[in-house]
Each structure stands twice: as C-alpha cells, then as structure tokens.
Amino acid sequence: MQVNLMDFWPRIWEATYQTLLMVGISLLAATLIGLPLGIILVVTRQGGLLENKPVFNAFSTVVNFFRSIPFIILLVAILPFTRFVVGSSIGTAAAVVPLVIFSAPYIARLVESSLLEVKPGVIEAAEAMGASPWQIIRRVYIPEGLSSIVLNLTIATIGLVGASAMAGFVGGGGLGDLAISYGYQRFETDIMIATVLLLVLIVQITQTIGNFASKKIRRQ
Amino acid sequence: MIQFEKVSKVYQHNGNDLRAVDGVDFTVHKGEIFGVIGFSGAGKSTLIRLVNLLERPTEGRVLVNGEDLTQLPKPDLRKVRKRIGMIFQHFNLLESKTVHHNVAFPLSLSGTPKKEVDQRVNEILEFVGLSDKAKQYPEELSGGQKQRVGIARALATSPDILLCDEATSALDPETTKSILKLLQKVRDEYGITILMITHEMNVVREVCDRIAVMESGKVIEKGSIFDLFSNPQHPTTQNFVRTVMENDIPASILNGIEERGASRNIYRVTFVDESAGQPVLSQVAKKFDVEVNVLFGQITELQGIPFGHLVVELQGEDQEVLRVINHIQQTVSVQEVTSNAG
Ligand SMILES: Nc1ncnc2c1ncn2[C@@H]1O[C@H](COP(=O)(O)OP(=O)(O)O)[C@@H](O)[C@H]1O
Ligand SMILES: [Mg+2]
User: Fold this and answer.
1) Which spans in B191-277 are helix H?
2) Does ipTM exceed 0.90?
3) pTM for this one?
4) Residue ranges near ligand 2 (ion) with Cβ within 5 Å
5) Any idea which architecture A7-218 has in CATH?
6) Domain B2-244: CATH superfamily, name plus number
C-alpha cells in the first residue's frame, strides 16, 4: 500500500517533535550529569586542583565502561532500569533513559577535554590570588572553557540525534524510527527522503547554533 | 619583607632527588626591588613560587613579613595570598573577560561590593595607563598592554609584595623598558617590595637595587648591582655581566700591547657616574707628567647612572705613573692589566 507524502505530514511532524523532545531532554539530563563528571575528572587528575588518584581512577573507569557499550546493546540491557525510572520500558520517555546513560559519559569526556584546554598558568594565577578550588572551578574553569564546552556539546547533540534514531526499538518514535519503519521496511522512498532531509536539517541547524553560541561566548 | 632561610625544594626525578632550590638564604627588604638572575633551569621559578606557597619548601623556611605561611590553615593562606601579587611571563589573563573584569577578579573573589570594585579598578587602570582599554579583551591587546593588565590585577588588592616571574621575557626591548619603569613606579608610589626573577641582565641592571645570581638551585653570588657589575666573582656572574657590558679587552688591542714591548703601564679604570672617568683622566694629564692613552672603553647604565671602565695606558716615568695611580684611586677603582689577563 502506497502512502501519500502529503497525507503523511502530520506523522512526520509528530516524529520530528519526538526527536527534538528526546534529544532535548536527553541533552539536558546528560549535561547535568556529564558536566560535573567532567569537572571531577579534571580537578582530581594528577597535578589537578584537588588531585585524588582513587577518585579519578574510579570515575574514569566508570566513564570508560559506559562509553564502551554500543548504544543498541545499552538500550536493551538497561530495560529493567528504564522501567524502574520512568515506569515503562516503551515510549519516548523510555528512550530518554538509555540516551542519557549513553551520552552523559561522552559529555563528561568532552567537558574534560574542554577544561584541559584552559591554560594551567591561568589556574595558577587564580591560586596565587587566593582563590579557593570552588572559586577556580566556577569563575575560571567554566567561563574560560565554556566556548569550547558549547562546541563540544554541539557534537554531543548531533550524536544524540543519531542515537535517537534507534529509539524505535523501544517504541520511542522519532524521525529515525519513521525512516526505518516506513522508508526502509515498507519501501516508501518519499518518506525516507523527507525524514532524512529533516534529520540533515536538524543537524545543520544544531551545528550553526553551536558555532554561533561558542563564538559569542568567547568574546563576551 | 621576604626571608629565605636555608630553603630547599627537592623534586623526585626518575627516582633521583633533584634539588631545584638548594639552601637558599637571603632577605628581601621592605620596599626593595630584588632581582634573581640565572639561566633557564637554575631554579628561579621554583624559588619565587615558594614565597606564595605555590610550591612548599622541602627544607628550611620562607618568612613573608615575618610569617611562615606553611603553618597557616588553607583559608588563612588564601587571605595572605591576596597580600602577595604575582605577574607572569605569559600574563595568564582570563581570555573570556574584559580588562576591567580581569582587574576586578581578585577583588570579587573576596566579595568586595561592586561599587568599591569599580572604583578601585578605574583607579588602578589609570595608574598603569590603560583607562581607555577597560572594555577590551586581552586578545585585543599588545604584549606590553597585557602585562600592564597583569600588573593592575596584581595590585588590585593592594598587596605589599609583588612577585614577577620573567615578567618581561616575552616582550621586546622597548616594551620591557616601559614595563620596568612601571614596576619602579609601583615601588616608589606604593612602597611595594618587588622580587623579580629573570634570565636577562639588562632587566636587573635597569631597576634592581640588589641581585642574587642563581645556578643549579644555589645562590652563587649576591650583592648590590654596582658590586656585581664592578667586581663579579663567580664565572657565571661574569658571563651575565658580559651580556650587557664587554669586560674583556679585544684581542687586537691586546696584540698591540704585546707588540709594543714588556714594560707597559696599562690599567683598567672602573668608574661610576659621570663625575669619574673622563674628568679624572684629563686632570691626570694636566697635573702629572704622563700621557694618557685610552685603549678601550665600555660604558653602560645602571639604574640610570653611567657605569663603565676604560683601559688606559699611562706613558711616563714609573715613579710618576705610581703617583698617578695613588691619586686617581681616591675616586675610581684601578686594576693593572697584563697582556695575558683581561
Ligand atoms: N614540578 C616539578 N617537578 C619536577 N621537577 C621540576 C618541577 N618544577 C621544576 N622542576 C625542575 O627544577 C629545575 C628548576 O626549574 P625552574 O625553577 O623552573 O627553573 P628556572 O625558572 O630558573 O628556569 C629544573 O630542572 C626543572 O626541570
Ligand atoms: Mg622559570
């Protein structure tokens, strides 16, 4: 049975909305987890502000562990946990849980690398001025690294858009799901093209906003 | 006032002890500009970082205004650090903040009210001559301007000590001069004690009251700038002096001395300020029965005062020459020069 693209628009819009919702919520939650993790990784490392080898090793190992699991496996593996958190193991909300667990450690590493770009001399100058470790994190590391963090979060967002395409496995919906279930499995080429174009558009817009925001932050 | 009391800093390097600072013992007096000079790796940065405890001494003590900072709990140490300004070779400014906010930074750390901060920042930017740059970002400034921001930031909390780690080493000679002038103004107007480290002799020559020469973690020589320039003892010190003032008599002149025979009366006359040197020698030529033949000379400036030496040949009777030496020794220092010793 052939589906008319025009008739299909409401489904496409709904899928777009689901994708944006999944990506947006996951990004927010993953950043809330990943940012502090990234900071912990930077300050506890050797020669760091609050050097602490056991803490660094523990966090670093956990981050590596989750980063080494392919998303599609993670998605299935944590189903019980997902059910525990959102009360259901299917639907858009259920897709958010694995997306967060997938991207939070990634964001932690990206934040870590952004903060490591902050010149050690600047940190040292703040120490010499009598800044406390917390003041250095909040008033030196974060503002000095923010432009780079934003650029890196853009990369993470685009990664999330890609991962969210697999959310169909848990009935998460979204553009990727649509492309697979109609475009691929039912050979609806029009719908395939339309959804892929929309994904391309979302990625383009995300990157443009990210670049702009990063540049703006650098010079304010 | 900063007192180094037999201070050492030992690092572990491939299982061996590396004595980056080794038994350093000297005092920097209040209101003094004290320079530490040494080649790269001599331990200068480690030494200066011992003052505000960016590094902790392994042995000995450092007293800042009579206080041993290692004894302080962390919050108190932070308070004391606000009384010790520091500037750096690469400025270390916050790139994401304007000049104004960079200078305001140390004040805002202690929760100073905004009005007070703004007033202080304006005042200090005026002092360093950057009032018109308050709204600009560090990357829009030249090296010299960045260091002025660094100085303004260091002075914002009205410290009584300023530590300068190679503060002019990334700057060209002209800019270096202007920054050194500014540091002198800091000392003269605020009475701030300045400890500066550098590997450049022309920097210490310009502004330092006293200097210490460091090598392999040790202070190998120290004294007033005039002492070290007129009479450097250690070969390293002599090398440093040579970087700004050629002490050796050029070979061509030495050869000339040899050719003209053995019994020559050649002397090195070292003088400070313009009242010595030339006038003394021209008087000699009038007063005594000798000819004064200047073979070689070098003049430089130490803290704005001419300083140098002339190598002269005194032609005349030996008796008369001795009388001349006795006479001029009252105002200048005189050393005999032989053809095989500079
Ligand atoms: N944190 C450190 N760990 C190990 N060795 C160090 C450390 N800091 C400095 N050093 C060593 O101490 C010596 C003196 O260094 P430094 O004080 O930076 O010299 P300078 O400032 O005179 O160039 C060098 O050999 C350097 O490699
Ligand atoms: Mg150094």
Assistant:
1) 201-207, 225-230, 235-244, 251-259
2) no
3) 0.87
4) B 45
5) Orthogonal Bundle (1.10)
6) P-loop containing nucleotide triphosphate hydrolases (3.40.50.300)
